[in-house]
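Deliverable D2.4 — example input (structure tokens):
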């Protein structure tokens, strides 16, 4: 129980619209340990973003529940947990494909936006944001506007904005897919290294198999819609001081790649 930082239990999701019902997710369960980096991979449109929004509490599932540190994200039927104290929601950071930086704000003002919104602009937190900017090569760009930065740098600002609120859990929804190939490799590796160093629990949604293998401790492969769990892979790459870059060069890499490639059934 204590080991389950995130516990996804029997999640189902049906969307209702004028065109009828879309079954997006069907009975998905898994759990994630503290400090673990897990990727969710699956065909486009299978329900990955929906699943992440449910874990974040933004979308209410049709069935099932998500527990963060043992506390339910969604209300339980009366009687099931009435002696439990009011859920203390964990701090969750969310990072999307679009970097969502505001052009009228400087890089610094964008980086501290999360702190501002959450009313956490203490001296200590602001110093931490400053430290992250300096550490990750943005110290000299604090007064710049987002349009003056490259796509990779902007994505790094978005990550720092997310990290500066010190979330316990990070949810990343295809955060690199808008970047060109070279930048994507570089930033994905960099973000992976940053998150390891800051010891974050993270869930990454991606459709890039290489990205998933290089970054993850575990990979959850989903089927096409409605998403169910196809398989879960424990990624063990036997290099010392594993970094995303080293993982890509490891002999085990190809083995995982081929297995997951087949499971994704891209031709069906
Ligand atoms: P993925 O992120 O894997 O590409 P999504 O979770 O975005 O997939 O979508 C899964 C399915 O649910 C798709 O068929 C999509 O059209 C549908 N869907 C997503 N959001 C909504 C919504 N708000 N209303 C109705 N249908 C939706
Ligand atoms: Mg999506």
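Example output (designed residues):
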């Amino acid at each position: 129980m204590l080991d389950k930082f995130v516990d996804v239990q029997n999640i189902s999701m049906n969307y209702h619209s004028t065109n009828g019902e879309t079954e997006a997710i069907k009975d998905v369960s898994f759990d994630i340990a503290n400090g673990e980096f897990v990727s969710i991979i699956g065909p486009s449109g299978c329900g990955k973003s929906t699943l992440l929004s449910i874990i974040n509490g933004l979308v209410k599932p049709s069935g099932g529940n998500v527990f963060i540190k043992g506390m339910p994200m969604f209300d339980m039927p009366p009687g099931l947990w009435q002696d439990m104290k009011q859920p203390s929601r964990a701090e969750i950071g969310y990072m999307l494909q679009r970097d969502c930086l505001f052009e009228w704000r400087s890089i610094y003002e964008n980086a501290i936006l999360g702190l501002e919104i959450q009313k956490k602009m203490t001296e200590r937190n602001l110093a931490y944001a400053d430290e992250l900017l300096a550490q990750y090569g943005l110290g000299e760009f604090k007064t710049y506007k987002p349009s003056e930065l490259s796509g990779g740098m902007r994505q790094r600002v978005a990550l720092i904005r997310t990290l500066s609120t010190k979330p316990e859990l990070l949810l990343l929804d295809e955060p690199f897919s808008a970047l060109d190939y070279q930048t994507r490799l570089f930033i994905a590796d960099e973000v992976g290294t940053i998150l390891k160093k800051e010891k974050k629990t993270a869930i990454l949604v991606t459709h890039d198999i290489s990205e998933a293998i290089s970054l993850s401790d575990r990979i959850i492969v989903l089927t096409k819609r409605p998403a169910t769990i196809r398989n879960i892979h424990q990624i063990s790459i036997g290099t010392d001081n594993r970094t995303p870059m080293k993982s890509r060069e490891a002999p085990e890499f190809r083995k995982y790649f081929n297995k997951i490639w087949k499971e994704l059934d891209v031709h069906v």
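Residues 82-88 have pLDDT under 50 and may be disordered.
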